[in-house]
Amino acid sequence: MTSPxxxxxxxxxxxxxxxxxxxxxxxxxxxxxxxRDELRLGLQEALVNAAKHGNSLDPTKHVSVQYAKVDGSYWxxxxxxGSGFDIPEECHDCPDGDGVETTGDCGRGLFILYQIFxxxxxxxxxxxxxxxxxxxxxxxxLTWWQGAWMAKDTVAMG
Length: 158
Fold this sequence. Notes:
The longest helix is centred in the N-terminal third of the chain and has 22 residues, at about 35-55. The chain is of the alpha+beta class. A 5-stranded antiparallel beta sheet has the order 1-2-3-5-4, covered by helices on one side. It has helices at about 20-30, 35-55, 110-115, 140-150, and strands spanning about 10-15, 60-70, 75-80, 120, 130-135.
């Protein structure tokens, strides 16, 4: 599928299952090798959430994924056929290691998504998530800081 902006989006769909190895490998085949382990974990969490929590592992329901590389970022849009859920307002604090959830509706899987991906956007219904990972591993603030630092006059000492 090609969008009006000329970006070619690939698409795949699969019956709800937890056997995700071939799906994840397909989704990662164009990603840089150094990013694949991290992305594999994030995509696995998102796909498990869609198949297990969204579709209740009903093999008659499908999970669909659209994916593309857009302007130096990788995007995945994962949609399930479930009724959705209430999107948590915050998901940046880690649940306690003792099994006690301290983040309300944000479990470990959602926490992992917010840690791995640079952008996580939910549909209003809660049955679709848009994930983005920039190719540049530098945070924006570091790029800004380094640019500001390099722009100043510096004196070499030594």
